[in-house]
TrEMBL record:
GO cellular component, one term: membrane
Keyword S-adenosyl-L-methionine attributed: no
SUPFAM superfamilies, sorted: Thiolase-like
Protein name (record): very-long-chain 3-oxoacyl-CoA synthase
UniProt cross-references to InterPro entries, sorted A to Z: 3-ktacl-CoA_syn (IPR012392), ACP_syn_III_C (IPR013747), FAE1_typ3_polyketide_synth (IPR013601), Thiolase-like (IPR016039)
Domain Beta-ketoacyl-[acyl-carrier-protein] synthase III C-terminal: 119-199
Organism in which the protein naturally occurs: Aegilops tauschii subsp. strangulata
Source lineage: Eukaryota, Viridiplantae, Streptophyta, Embryophyta, Tracheophyta
Keywords per UniProt: Acyltransferase, Transferase
Length: 228
């Protein structure tokens, strides 16, 4: 229960939502919320606030947290895929699903190529292991997870607020273009996995004041592999 006190760093983000197409810079396209608290895999208690034997209140992180997160992500992908993926990717996914039903585990599940649906991805920077697993599971390139890794390096684990630091990183690098699609993937206790899809209406100017103003020129930095 001491572990969360070492893992998390204080962070906060405010986002102004508007119905005005004249002033908004991003258009909200989709929101998919996956809640797995009713599952039998311990999802509800894998991140849980409780008292220890001495009466101290803390957050208990279960050892199967990554397994639960992976299952939640898979369920979320299954739901958001038909909303964003082109027909060719959806067809491959359906064929893989049918083949697995017929032939069983001998057929590996098809992982859709989400780069066909999004130009930018903002992944929950909940730790190096979280980013590594998401990169592996979604078959993402190093550049696609760069914003997440650099946010973790610069600001630490600020939980789901890290997604907005990542969006600010992409804009500070001047990579955002009008019409670009952004996929945000966040996790939380419960256990839940949430996806938000944005479409850029008007990119921010590169000299816009933001969290990366004083440090963007130093990034990206090389992050060496951790010895196991």
């Amino acid at each position: 229960m001491l572990l969360p006190n070492c893992l998390f760093r204080v962070g906060g983000v405010a986002a102004l939502l508007s119905t005005s197409p004249m002033n908004a810079r991003f258009r909200l396209k989709h929101v998919v919320r996956t809640f797995t608290g009713a599952n039998d895999d311990g999802a509800y208690r894998c991140v849980f606030q409780e008292e220890d034997d001495q009466g101290n209140v803390g957050i208990n992180l279960s050892k199967n947290l990554m397994v639960v997160a992976g299952s939640s992500l898979q369920a979320n992908i299954t739901e958001i895929g038909p909303l964003v993926l082109p027909a060719s990717e959806q067809l491959l996914f359906v064929l893989s699903f049918i083949a697995r039903k017929v032939l069983g585990a001998r057929i590996k599940p098809y992982i859709p190529d989400f780069s066909t649906a999004f130009e930018h991805m903002c992944i929950h920077a909940g730790g190096r292991a979280v980013i590594d697993q998401l990169q592996k599971k979604l078959r993402l390139t190093d550049q696609q997870v760069e914003a997440s890794r650099m946010t973790l390096h610069r600001f630490g684990n600020t939980s789901s607020s890290s997604l907005w630091y990542e969006l600010a990183y992409v804009e500070a690098k001047g990579r955002m273009r009008k019409g670009d699609r952004v996929w945000m993937i966040g996790f939380g206790s419960g256990f839940k996995c949430n996806s938000v899809v944005w479409e850029c209406i008007q990119p921010a100017a590169r000299d816009t004041d933001g969290p990366w103003t004083t440090s963007i020129h130093r990034y990206p930095v090389d992050i060496p592999d951790v010895l196991k």
